[in-house]
Amino acid sequence: MRVLTLNVQNDVGDPRRFALINAELRRLRPDVVMLQEVCYGSQLAELLDGTGLVHRTHQSDVLPNLPDLFQHDGTALATRRPHRVTDVLESPSTDPHWWTLAAVVDDQFLAITPTTPWRLDHEHARERQALDIATLHTRHDLPTVLAGDFNATPDAASIRFLSGLQSLDGRSTHFHDAWTVAGDGPGHTWTTENPLARQEIATLIGQSNHHRRIDYIFATAATITSATLVGVNPPLSDHYGLTADLELI
User: Fold this and answer.
1) Alpha-carbon distance 219 to 140, whole Å?
2) pLDDT tens for residues 70-89?
3) Model confidence pLDDT, tens digit, residues 13-30
4) Could you tell me which residues are beta bridge partners of residue 176?
5) How far apart are CA 86 and CA 66, in angstroms?
6) Which of 11, 34, 102, 224 could pair with 181 as two cysteines, CB 3.0-4.6 Å apart?
7) What is the dihedral of CA 90, 203, 232, 189, to 10 degrees?
8) How far apart are CA 37 and CA 249, in angstroms?
């Protein structure tokens, strides 16, 4: 099974990049796609056209009464096999337009895709969200694939918790980090080496030389055989995406 995650960066920049993302999805043929900051409606349809990912859920499908401001971009899940959304969690932060979607795919595994708060001083909110994700995993008692934009580096408490390297609030869990298992190199996904990210990083972070791995694919009860960055040359978004091949155990 191939899993892909990508922060699409909504409709910022050259609209021709949406066709490039679509072409990359067709080339890679993932079975499960987790998208963040994707616009509801026509953009999602354009990104997934002809990919075979016919089962699609945007957060606005399951939260239809959101104010227009919060419907502009958000979390989306697309799969080849049928899925049913089981849980929708609001981000515990000042960024209320991002929700975590959890869905059971083909009655075989749980797919969870979050976007966590981006601010450097909001690790407390990312920790809270990581605890909520662990609760979802435990509640469903299924193999879990967890992928998205976590806005935290591997040494952050939220990522260490998910990786089983530390506890939070007296609780612990463990997911395999696909890049740690099968990736090559630092795996930076938000970096000033990406020309589509350079100005945004300068504006938001205030640094001209900034490199972080903040996008992840995690899994439980799975053998991970590969992990590769997506959309590096040419860049498809301000984030590099990530794909991983895995086999559920």
Assistant:
1) 14
2) 556 889 999 999 999 999 98
3) 998 999 999 999 999 999
4) 219
5) 18
6) 224
7) -50
8) 31
Strand, coil or helix: 224: strand
236 Ramachandran zone, left/alpha/beta (phi>0; psi -120 to 50): alpha
Note the pTM of the prediction, 2 decimals.
0.95
The CA-based diameter of the chain, rounded to the nearest angstrom, is 48
DSSP string for 141-165: TS-EEEEEE----TTSHHHHHHTTS
Encoded amino acid at 191, one letter: T
Q: Are 89 and 139 in contact (CB under 8 A)?
A: no
Q: Which alpha helices (DSSP H) does 49-173 contain, by range?
A: 59-62, 68-71, 123-140, 157-162
What is the C-alpha to C-alpha distance for residues 18 and 60, in angstroms, rounded to an integer?
A: 20
Report strand pairing: 190-191 vs 211-212.
antiparallel
Calculate the CA 112 to chain-centre distance: 9
DSSP E strands in the chain: the ranges are 2-7, 32-39, 55-58, 73-79, 83-90, 99-105, 109-113, 144-149, 176-177, 190-191, 211-212, 215-219, 222-230, 241-248
DSSP state of 227: E
* Token pair listed for 200: 């945004």
**DSSP letter, residue 154:** T
